[in-house]
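A protein record in our archive is deliberately plain, so that people and models can read it alike. The tokens are whole numbers drawn from a learned vocabulary of local backbone shapes. For reference, a complete record is included directly beneath this paragraph.
>
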Amino acid sequence: MKSLLKHPIRVIARLLWFGAVIVLACFRYLFTCAFRPADTAIRARWLQRLSRQTLRVLGVQMDVSGPVPERGLLVSNHLSYVDILAISACAPVVFVAKREVRRWPVFGWLAQLGGTVFVDRENRARVGRTTQEIDAALARGALVVLFPEGTSSDGKTILPFKSSLLEPATQHGHPLATSLIQYELPDGDVGEEVCYWKDMTLVPHLLNLLSKRGLRASLRFTQTRAGSSDRKQLARQLHSEIMQIKAALAA
């Protein structure tokens, strides 16, 4: 609530703007997606348009470099719910997210409408079914985005990658790409005010973010050389590639 008291006009104006964006997006969904729920491409394009509009509400400036993939599996580090908006703004995608995201206010509902595949990592049987859903989306030519850290962090490092959901990439030779996401916040602390981790609560975090003058999101895409047929080795390879990009940018 401190952000609301400090910049009430900015926060209220952006909340009203965001509300209008959501209402219009719902109408577009009814006319373009509601009667074609199995068409992931249409839902991904709907989510892309919504993401671009939401980034404008948040005052996010995008800095994108490297070839943005069109299909296959895209593996990225994970810092915040803003990651989803930033990547989706670059290309129509299908996200893989932890099941807790489904219960988030507004964002969880929009993720479901956008065709997100939800995974329960604690349930081995369910992870197997999720892998099949990912494989089916890849077979349809979709660009599937995976955050293999399994959770978000403050961005100081990149957590080890979990390998369980990389199985489709090892079995069928789908194209592989990586992405490194970083943020700059001129009037705040990225680790505490952009990154969404620890025991943070969504609504207060979002209100604080709405109070900021602006945010810069940098995305670095790279095509990945042929990956290992062993998913654990592939997880280490992809992690190493993203760490190398991070180190090169910091040098």
About this structure: The radius of gyration is 18 Å. The mean pLDDT is 91. The beta strands are 60-65, 72-76, 94-98, 117-119, 143-146, 176-184, 215-223. The longest helix spans residues 8-32.
